Amino acid sequence: MFKHEKQLFHPVGVERPNPQYAALLQEQLGGANGELKAAMQYLSQSFRIKDQKIKDLFMDIAAEELGHMEMVAQTISLLNGHDVDAQRVDAGEIQTHVLMGLNPGLINASGYSWTGDYVSVTGDLCADILSNIASEQRAKVVYEYLYRQIDDRRVRETIDFLLNREEAHNQMFRDAFNAVQDSGSNQDFGTTKAAKMYFSMSNPGPNAFAGNEVKAPAFAR
After folding, report:
1. What's the rounded mean pLDDT across residues 71-75?
2. In whole angstroms, how far apart are CA 41 and each of 27, 167, 185?
């Protein structure tokens, strides 16, 4: 069961209209790494999870992502700040000017429609959590790119909040993975000697091809 609270997850605002940037921000509404994708992915993955604590985590984060989606949509609406006029957008998507009357749409920055193909569900908890960690990291990168391209203080405050929440979700999923990392595909497969071997293909020697164990390179923190 879901319910709508009549307040945003975090206040949003703009210092001035910026329709060109509104087109860019569409990426986080209907793009491959946007808020709708995240909400639908975590919700879809949760349906078969048997561990109630982890299921609740997925559902809670999915619900929060819907709140983030509402924040992004409201910011886009404020940034448009003008009547239907495609000349106000120098480049990028203009679909909202001809189909939706500037209503924030489920499209990306180029005007392509959101698709369920963005959503990754395997039914394997380890694989799904790792996918979610990567999803949060990619979303964070997109927000970082967006942050650099706007000097509006209010918009930056919104993006900064969303960036920090992506990082929080990333850590939550990492903690969940630590709890289940010896289950599912990590338990059923990857248990033989071959799963622990590293082949030095950059400068291979006879030992590598003979199947002898070679240590993977260590990277400093």
Report:
1. 97
2. 17, 17, 19
| C-alpha gyration radius of the chain | 21
* Residue 124, both tokens: 């394997």
The three-state secondary structure class of 72 is helix
Instruction: Answer yes or no: are the C-beta atoms of 36 and 30 closer than 8 Å.
Output: yes
Measured CA to CA, the distance from residue 107 to residue 187 in angstroms comes to 39
Distance separating alpha carbons of residues 152 and 104, to the nearest angstrom: 19
**Confidence (pTM):** 0.85
Tokens of 137: 């990291």
Q: Decide: helix, strand or coil at residue 199.
A: coil
Task: Provide long-range contacts, Cβ within 8 A and 24+ apart, for 120-126.
Answer: 120/41, 121/41, 121/44, 121/45, 123/48, 124/184, 124/185, 125/49, 125/51, 125/54, 125/180, 125/183, 125/184, 126/177, 126/180, 126/181, 126/183, 126/184, 126/185, 126/186
Whether pLDDT at 8 is above 60: yes
Q: Each residue of 121-167: pLDDT tens digit?
A: 999 999 999 999 999 999 999 999 999 999 999 999 999 999 999 99
Distances (CA, A) of 95 to 23, 79, 110, 155: 10, 16, 9, 23
- Which has the closest alpha carbon to 40: 54, 27, 58, 57? 58
Provide the token pair at 96: 């909202």
Query: Dihedral sign, CA of 100, 103, 108, 113?
Result: negative
